[in-house]
Design brief:
The structure is a homotrimer. Chain A has about 140 residues and is α+β, with helices and mostly antiparallel strands. Helices cover about 25% and strands about 35% of the residues of chain A. The first copy, chain A, is built from 3 helices and 8 strands, in the order ββαββααββββ. In chain A, the strands form 2 sheets. A 5-stranded antiparallel sheet of chain A has the order 1-8-3-5-6, with helices on one face. A 3-stranded antiparallel sheet of chain A has the order 2-7-4. In chain A, a hairpin with a 2-residue loop joins strand 5 and strand 6. Chains A and B meet through strand 4, helix 2 and strand 5 of A and strand 3, helix 3 and strand 8 of B.
Chain lengths: ~140, ~140, ~140
């Protein structure tokens, strides 16, 4: 059984941002030499997501507008979490809708992906250093 | 270590539909001869979901009505993704709420399920050919 | 390849409740003697969640208020699922937002967690006996 663990670090310029990490995931899988197995990719911070969807700018705009409607940042006083001195309660909520992690099948040494699947890091409280974990297991 | 990879294909008559795939997942697990392991089931298209919930018609109606309220299809002009010529931006949003994938424990050669757990394919932009991946790993 | 399967049972006093199960997950991982692998933690009931987020009381209050806004319990007549005699349709919806399961990487024999990650059982239709599954696989 083979394993590989790798960490990515992000420090986004914007508070909310989506970053395509498909190439990084593919590289870690190739380096693992796993031919058949599973690859976990998860945000290590609780105000961020890893998700799989379309690499299309208009859709990413739609995601941001939609998440802001479902879990608005302002007014920050509406959230009891923000009584602790934080202003990121909405980021914890947004992350639940977009998800913490994805599991990707590895078949014949590559991501077993549909035609449009791409992996994204979803940042909801950025402008500071945050990590993503990639873990490969298999044979 | 044993592996098995299997693909299901769906072409739903309706734009939105939920299809119980528990039997298909159980068959793949039995064919894999894995006694202890994990089974990944994921939509390979980004406007569809795989999720676990109740096999109850009323609830499926409630899911559809609720998703339409949270991420309405119309007016399609409200989404920038639809400027590309698509009309399925809402399907990408609905899929985030219902999820891309499930991971199921395999214990003693069978799905380790609670009393009401059933696996569903959730289609949000159907009427064309789309795939689901089932990947079993274990011993 | 090593495996371990463990079940937790909950019977919450309140209909909706969040319970920190990080210690229980850590114990099962240590008992499995897996050094490198994956740990699945999932609700076995379809009106409950397992999720990873912050161990902060104010945030848990925010989650409950937010979920009640997105998928209100009352009036129970708004849901066709409740025509079956149930009153928990909203619990099935809330569980989709918070998720059924998490997958946790195991590195060097321990949970490979970020600084604030904690595992929670999320109950949305409690006051009766319900189970969580913990499954560890690896080497």
């Amino acid at each position: 059984m083979k394993f590989k663990t790798h960490y990515l670090v992000f420090n986004t310029k914007k508070r909310i941002d989506f970053i395509n990490i498909t190439r990084e995931v593919r590289t870690v899988i190739q380096e693992s030499q796993v031919r058949e197995g599973l690859c976990l990719v998860n945000a290590m911070h609780i105000s961020a997501s890893v998700f799989i969807n379309d690499n299309e700018t208009g859709l990413h705009y739609d995601f941001q507008k939609w998440l802001e409607k479902l879990a608005p940042h302002n007014p920050i006083e509406q959230y009891r979490h923000n009584d602790t001195g934080e202003d990121n309660a909405d980021a914890h909520l947004k992350r639940q809708i977009m998800g913490r992690e994805v599991i990707i099948a590895i078949t014949n040494g590559n991501l077993d992906f549909g035609p449009w699947e791409q992996v994204f890091y979803g940042e909801f409280d950025g402008q500071r250093s945050k990590k993503v974990l990639i873990k490969v297991i298999g044979d």
